[in-house]
Amino acid sequence: MARSTSKDAQALFNSLRSAYAATPTSLKIIDLYVGFAVFTALIQVVYMAIVGSFPFNSFLSGVLSCVGTAVLAVCLRIQVNKENKEFKDLPPERAFADFVLCNLVLHLVIMNFLG
Amino acid sequence: MQLVSACTKTLLDSRGKAAAMEKFSISILLIISLLPFLCSSFSQESPTDRRILVLLDDFSLKSSHSIFFSSLKSRGFDLDFKLADDPKLALQRYGQYLYDGLVLFSPSVERFGVALDLAAVLDFVDSGHDLIVAADASASDLIKSIATECGVDFDEDPSALVIDHKTFAVSEIEGDHTLIAADDFIQSDVILGKTKIEAPVLFKGIAHSINGANGLALKVLSASPSAYSANPSSKLSSPPSLTGSTISLVSVMQARNNARIMITGSLDMFSNRCFRSGVQNAESAIKYDKSGNEQFVAELTKWIFHERGHLKAVNVRHHKLGETDEPAMYRIKDDLEFYVEIYEWSGKSWEPYVANDAQVQFYMMSPYVLKTLSTDQKGLYHTTFKVPDVYGVFQFKVEYERLGYTSLSLSKQIPVRPFRHNEYERFITTAFPYYGASFATMAGFFIFSFVYLYNK
Fold first, then answer.
1. N or C of chain A: less Cβ packing under 10 Å?
2. Distance from CA of B384 to the nearest CA of A (A)
3. Is the CB of residue B444 less than 8 Å away from at least one CB of chain A?
4. Domain count of chain A?
5. Is residue A3 part of a domain?
6. Of B435, B442, B455, which is closest to A26 when you measure between CB atoms?
7. Which residue range is the domain that position A56 belongs to?
8. Do A69 and B440 touch (CB under 8 A)?
9. Residue B388: what pLDDT?
10. Which residues 103-132 on chain B approach chain A with CB closer than 8 angstroms?
11. For residues A24-59, b (16+ Cβ closer than 10 Å) or e, as one string?
């Protein structure tokens, strides 16, 4: 039984890998960016757990910048993905422009809150 | 014209004289009205010659205790001798006290003269004046109740005297061991003076003990462990209630308003006979030519009448380190300096008080900083400390209570504010990773947007 579940897990993982390889490159770039942002946020949380939350506003602004930009990137991915029926009529340039503007506002807020 | 001018001149002269007369009489009136204020009690500002009322049972005490009274007079006191039941007795008139101290050498008085009673004596003490009460074997209930109000309980048995079969004074006449030679003094240079009293003190009278609930009364002269209080002429039917060192022969009390009261069970202790006689302790058999009574009584009355051990603390100042004027508010983590001057009344003038244990607290519901003040030997005490990292309304508190000294209790309020938003350090070191992460995210976003746009 254990062997079969591990074999199933392996089969699942291989099918995921092959499916993912089929996605367009632009989406893969977005995924890479999201991964980078989440990784940076995790580093900050681990650092806060070690050192303590003394300038709490700085901690919040750092984590918010990473999480916020990750969320915006995910929204971009949803809107740009051609397999998504919901956003069929939305031009991808419009989606990218929204992404850039929202990131600008986000980083303005972050710089203010960073102290 | 000239006539008119001459007339006006003479008129003016006479009016001038009248005006001068008026001015003169007004100034006389003013001076007279100020006189009562010049003879006030021991106030910090004018502790000059003081009037003491001495109440006696009969005037023979004036001669039998003449050495004591003349020593008081030579120290500058005005003594007013009256019989205790004199109907014209008055401690105060029109709300002002006529005397600054009261000496009750009238143990057997049942009722004072009309204007004086237990409540009046207690009011006298409550208003800051000093009191000496001496009882003896004939002590009345009135004297005993005055003592009880001051925290000292005399033996209730009216015929009991202090008897000590081991440390009595050897004498030819008195064989019942009621004249005792006591030398168990309190250890205090303030109360009894710097010179050690070598000879024991002769005492013949009734015993008292300090009420256990009273924290302000002190035993200045205690009886030896072999003393007890009982009737010398009858056999003891039950063990005596007061024995040993709990018997106090002379007690003092310093009230919270710094009035000082001395209570003793022996009027003979002040008499010329005891002052002049030699004393030999039956136990130790050392013979002294002169008893310690005169020195003991003189030093103790100096303490009672505030010629020693009366402190005042003035001139509380504080300022930030490096500045000279007093700010209205401090900021957390400021450095500040605190100054206070403490003086002791020496009987004639305010001398600088020198001690190394005065402390100041920086207090807000509990002391955040407690520092010992260092002195420059001239009465100025100062210290430096850093304001704690807590903001609020603090007080500089100096609380000084030592045996035999008046208590000092000063406080000065000062608020402490937190940092203003521009008084923090500009870049906090522990937050550098967060700064770095934010900038890294911005750079990442910039690079990503290029890569995404120009990706074919």
1. N
2. 29
3. yes
4. 1
5. no
6. B455
7. 25-113
8. no
9. 92
10. none
11. eebbebbeebbebbeebbebbeebbeeeeeebeebb
Q: How far apart are CA B274 and CA B294, in angstroms?
A: 8
Beta bridge partners of B131: B102, B261
Both tokens of residue A46?
């681990």
Q: Which residues of A touch B440 (CB under 8 A)?
A: 40
Residue B154: CB partners within 8 Å, gap ≥ 6? Answer: B135, B139, B144, B147, B148, B206, B207, B208, B265
- Give the nearest partner residue to A62 out of B434, B452, B455, using CB atoms: B434
Rama region for B322: left / alpha / beta (φ>0; ψ in -120 to 50; rest):
left
On whether residue A16 sits in a domain, the answer given is no
Task: Please check whether residue A36 lies inside any domain of the structure.
Answer: yes
pLDDT reported for residue B13: 53
Strands B180-182 and B201-203: antiparallel
Phi and psi dihedrals of A48, rounded to 5? -65, -40
- Does residue A18 fall inside a structural domain? no
CB B291 within 8 A of CB B199: yes
Residues 6+ apart with CB under 8 A from A33: A70, A73, B444, B445, B448
Closest CA to B162 of B142, B140, B136, B139: B136
Residue ranges in chain A assigned as alpha helix (H):
2-21, 25-51, 56-80, 92-113
Q: A-chain residues within 8 Å CB-CB of B430? A: 51-52, 54-55
Question: φ, ψ for residue B30 (rounded to 5)?
Answer: -60, -45
pLDDT tens, position by position, B295-341 = 999 999 999 998 888 999 999 999 999 888 999 999 999 999 999 99
Contact assignment for B437 to A65 by CB distance below 8 Å: yes
Q: Report the distance separating Cα B130 and Cα B52, nearest Å.
A: 9
pLDDT of residue B332: 92
Taking the C-alpha atoms of residue B371 and residue B392, their distance in angstroms, rounded to an integer, is 20
First-to-final CA distance of chain B: 126
The pTM of the full predicted model, rounded to 2 decimals, is: 0.70
ipTM of the shown complex: 0.90
Q: How many other CB atoms are there within 10 angstroms of residue B88's CB atom? A: 9
